[in-house]
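Researcher: Checking consistency across runs. Here is Amino acid ABC transporter substrate-binding protein again:
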Amino acid sequence: MNAPATPPGAGPADVSSARTGPARTGPARTGPVRVGVLVPLSRPGWTEAGRHLLAGLELAVREVNDAGGIGGRPLEPVVRDTAADPRGAAAAVDELAGLGVAAVAGEYHSVVARAAAARADALGLPFLCSSAVLDALTGRPTPWVARIAPPQSRGWRVYADFLLGAGHSRVAVVAEPSVYWESGTRVLREYLAPRGGTVIGLDAHAHAPTAVCDELAGSGATALLLLVGQPDPAVPIVRALRRDRRLAGVMAGAPAGQPEFAGWAGLLGGDGAGIPFLRYLPQRLGPLGAHVGKALRERLGEEPSFVAFEGYDTIAVLAEAMRSHGVDRERIAASWPHLAVEGTRGQIRFSRAPGTGIWQGERMPVQVVDRDPEEPGRFRILHTG
């Protein structure tokens, strides 16, 4: 268990002592309050997720400013495209710090968020991560980093519990090399093994889609989990699986959430239905969630994903931190354990989660969902945790 770098109730002086990097220009005392925004908007980033994340962030900024901003000062987002590049994200954090942002928000890809978090920690710059779930976003405990999304270990254990409940104790995973996919596979193995389950690993780079099917046919697995990028190689693997008569009874799964987005259904149609994935939404949205969902639907021209709601909640939290504690970076970082913010999916509070080293949003809802094979545009809730 990682010990907290800053105990609950610590003030700004405690936070400033954790800074290890060079000093940077702090937020201005007048004019707009600038917030850095990191999102993947170009390939090889998952651009569809980036578009949804940015839509939620920008909607919340607009509503904060319509309500009077931060003490009468408008909130101004300074957006940087990470393109799923960890080094580019770290450079963007440096640039944003020099531009005087009060905090940095956003990011979807875990390996990118990890690089951004490490740089923010070194610079003494608050970073509120929206969507990346890798448990260890930093190599050490830090007071500067907080996260809205639940950690991967929690979500993927819920998914493993769903697999067992659905009768899948022998599970194959086809994975690309990545810290994120390796971490997810480890969570599945550690959860399933004591319960009689087995995880069989297949290398997506070493096997063409048809070869994946050949390996799967001889494995005895009843489920194949896609721990790979979207659209390639996820889409070709699904197509090969659906067309292989030997595997008619094998369930495809995508815990990372690829089927959540409209692009998945557009590429696969009915073949993309019936593939369970993780989604971080409650069974029913409250008044704020319903309002935000309607506004996001109009902004995006399609059904908003959980990623869009995470973006909105990120700005809602930062706005409350700045209203209640001020726009100084140290005070924002010191505010994490004291916040109680009404978000789109329930109240948001932060605590120290074992093994993460950061301030973690508590009790975020977790669902296992799929697209209804009878109506691929409709989602079915299969399991909650």
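Researcher: Does this match what you'd expect to see?
Model: One thing to look at in this run: The first helix runs from residue 12 to 16.
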